[in-house]
Amino acid sequence: MVRTPLTAEERERGYALGRALQHARGRRSAAEVAMLAGISLDTLRKIERGAIAAPTFFTVAALARVLGLDLDALASNAAAAMGSGERRLAS
Fold first, then answer.
1. CA nearest neighbour of 88 among 39, 35, 15
2. Disulfide: which of 10, 43, 75, 83 matches 6 by Cβ 3.0-4.6 Å?
3. Within 10 Å of residue 7's Cβ, how many Cβ atoms?
4. pLDDT tens digits for the chain (91 residues)?
């Protein structure tokens, strides 16, 4: 299956999501959060830096649960990060 390349906006949105998750993680280790969410540390790191710009719903939901985030709040935080100048396109 061939995926359609992501647009610049989709990559930017993925980066904003990653930053929002990283901010919510705070001082907790990435390894602890990944383990509790049932994902690999590598996957969490890729999401946080925007390398996985469109993680699956269930991955995001598991991270939100572990971090104590409401999915609506997470989406709002990511959207706010996009509008606050925290923009960077994932390479």
1. 15
2. 10
3. 10
4. 787 888 888 888 899 999 999 999 999 999 999 999 999 999 999 999 989 988 999 999 999 999 999 999 888 877 776 766 554 433 3
